[in-house]
Design goal:
two-stranded antiparallel sheet, 2 helices, two-stranded parallel ribbon, alpha+beta, 17% helix, single chain, 4 strands
Length: 82
């Protein structure tokens, strides 16, 4: 893609995987992904399920994103790729 276009990749929970997310981030693409509530997140030595993690997300930390006419409320988790 030429120019200053941003690429957003939207996954539903059936396709979300570490390898797909890492591939997108390597290409500089933004990822919006649904997660299954029983999925485990690994961050800084902590292993909460998505359901447990969601308890700590304040409504004020979320924002709306529209994709293809559908509106999603998301919490942004920034990931830095080295």
């Amino acid at each position: 893609m030429g120019g200053n276009h941003r690429v957003y990749v939207l996954f539903d929970s059936s396709y979300t995987s570490k390898s797909l997310i890492e591939t997108c981030l390597t290409k500089g693409w933004y990822v919006i992904a649904a997660l299954k509530t029983n999925q485990i997140l690994y961050s800084k030595g902590i292993r909460p399920s998505v359901k447990e993690f969601a308890r700590y997300i304040a409504f004020s930390d979320t924002h709306l994103v529209t994709v293809g006419g559908e509106v999603y409320r998301i919490e942004c988790i920034a990931t830095k790729r080295d």
